[in-house]
Amino acid sequence: MFRLGQLASIFGGRNLFIMQQSTRFASIISDGRGKCDESFDSNYKMCFGPSSESHLGIKDVTKENVWGYKFPQVCLKYGKEDSIQHALAVGIDASYPNSSRYLDRGDKSLHVLPTFLLPLANKILMELSRQSQIIPNDRTVHGEIYIKMLHPLEPEGEIWYDLELVDILDKGKGTLYCYNFHGTDTTGTKIFLIEYQMYEIGTGSDSSSGKGRPTRSEKVIPILPPPQGKEPDVVFPFTVVPFDPKYFDEEGSPLAKNVSIYSTQHYKQYYSITDKLRPEPRCHGRYYLGGVIQSIFKYFGDGDASKFKSVKTRLAYPVSPGETILTKAWHLGERIQFETFSKQNGKCVLQASYIDLD
């Protein structure tokens, strides 16, 4: 993991990474006509105000009336520094094939990893959890993630997130909330789709609150178990960042609120929240998913993210700081199937997953 002071040395001391800490921008736009003109950082509260299509305030949204709630749009304005910082955070360095595509601000073909989309998507759902009466954070964990790129992300620009509730499913011991994020650029062109699942523990048909809900949905992209009886084409490790207490000490400090959410100095690049459900520090699933995806690009795509079409995975088990995870990957034409396991305890952490490449 690189810090800002190390970046200039990556390309022989050239001044490619001399930058100021930039402020992120985001707006919650109910009518879709607003501009990206509000300061944004992962520590700031988002404003889920009522829209012209829904008179409900976010605090009044419940599991019973959520289908009538129109989610506001979110606009993210980002720069090349953000995409570079995200690439560094998930393990890309100068030894990576064609590393300048990810780390050289002056490279005209600068690539943006698909997992760059996840921090803001996660932030939106976390705020929804905190401010509404659905998916309470103290008993909710991440489920499955699907990302489909319709067009490559630009190295810098504005992207819009439109959140849609797709289904609420009864999973016996819990309730699964299935959301889609539809992404567009400033012209309204569709550029990505993210399927994001949140699992609420203790509210399925095993409890009185979950009875009567469907158990499956045809609207959800299915996971895909790995091929049986076939040895993987490659097994590769990825070691996540160790626990660093200073990130948690700085959570409420002015420094944390002035650092880009994508910066390698921002603790939420790597670490999940700690609470009653998660008392021990854990790494973000989206963080080590990014590490696995860039490694698959390295082994099967010559480090070229422009070949990426989609990824589907299930976050099956938590990963602690400092752990090494091992990914088994099968190359089946344009599809790479993979599963990822903890080297320490053997648990599957990314289950029945695949990446489609062009």
- SS element count, helices: 7
Q: On the 0-100 scale, what is the average pLDDT? A: 81
Query: Which oligomerization state do the chains in this entry correspond to?
Result: single chain
The 3D shape can be described as globular
Radius of gyration: 20 Å
Number of strands: 12
Residue stretches low in confidence (pLDDT < 50, at least 5 long) are: 1-24, 29-39
- Major beta sheet summary: 12 strands, antiparallel
Helical fraction: 10-25%
* Strand arrangement in the largest pleated sheet: 2-1-3-5-6-7-4-9-12-11-10-8
Describe the protein's architecture and organization.
- It contains seven helices and twelve strands.
- It is an alpha+beta fold.
- Strands 2-1-3-5-6-7-4-9-12-11-10-8 form a twelve-stranded antiparallel β-sheet.
- Strand 5 and strand 6 form a beta hairpin.
- The radius of gyration is 20 Å and the shape is globular.
- It starts with a helix and ends with a strand.
What tags apply to this protein structure?
12-stranded antiparallel β-sheet, 16% helix, 12 strands, disordered N terminus, 358 residues, alpha+beta
Give a brief outline of the structure.
Helix content is 16%, strand content 28%.
Protein topology:
Layout: H1 4-7, E1 24-29, E2 39-40, E3 73-78, H2 80-89, H3 100-103, H4 118-131, E4 140-149, E5 157-170, E6 174-184, E7 190-201, E8 234-239, H5 245-249, H6 254-257, H7 285-300, E9 308-315, E10 324-332, E11 335-342, E12 348-357
Antiparallel strand pairs: 1-2, 1-3, 3-5, 4-7, 4-9, 5-6, 6-7, 8-10, 9-12, 10-11, 11-12
